[in-house]
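Predict the 3D structure for this chain.
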Amino acid sequence: MVYPFGVRSRALMALCLFSLATTFPNAAMASRVSPMIIDMTPTGRASVGRVELTNDADRAIAYEVQMMRGDVSLTGELALTPADEQFLVFPPQSVIEANSQQVFRIQYVGEEALDASQIYYLAIRQVPVAFDEGQNQVQVVVNYNVLVNVVPDGTNPQPAVREARYVERPKQADDAAENSADTPPADAGSENSQTVAETERGLLVDLGNDGSRYYFAGRANWTITAQTAEGEVFELKLSGREVSQHTGVGVVGPGKTRQFFIPIEQTLVTETIRLNIEL
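Done. Predicted structure below.
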């Protein structure tokens, strides 16, 4: 499939989100979730999914879970809204003993006649532990978002490049929670001070989905061809693994558009860019 354009990236979604809160003693803490991505059907045996949370810590940890509807913006920010009426979740809370596992069972009970796949997340949140007044220690609170796709039969993805151009822009912050570029402010107290913003060069693509099923931009093979500013032929082939280093998973839902960035040092002529996506 060849498109006459060719990617700004926001490596979506960190599926696993971490936050810090002040309080608890510094204990050895570790937990693992498997799987991090689930496909389910609206009906039948496959409308039930299971997620296992392993507590490798040396103490019991309390968790609560909730199903959320996921909406991913053009630049990859994830907005979550409760979707309790669409799922049954058991157990909704659990205290997992040290070096033990807990399986959370989720079942889709929403609309059966779906025209396109739907994106949800199982939000797993660690419950902060109460501490004695006057303590000033650190508690690491770990939250996970497990991607849950409800996929009806007969649906298919259809990648579509909306727009693509070669750009030079301020380098984006590494932290997926930050939306601003990494441009240090100038020193207002010095007339002679200068700010040199770090920049990045590459391909910025608005990549859409005209199909009825989600797809992962970060698992597809990309072939980029173009002409350089010097008139030379340019070709870059990227495996799904290589693409994911810049895009993350890159989930693109039906009827949605995501923006991805692929760094390229050679200056490309935008009008000559072609992008082939192989799912």
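Residues 1-28, 175-196 have pLDDT under 50 and may be disordered.
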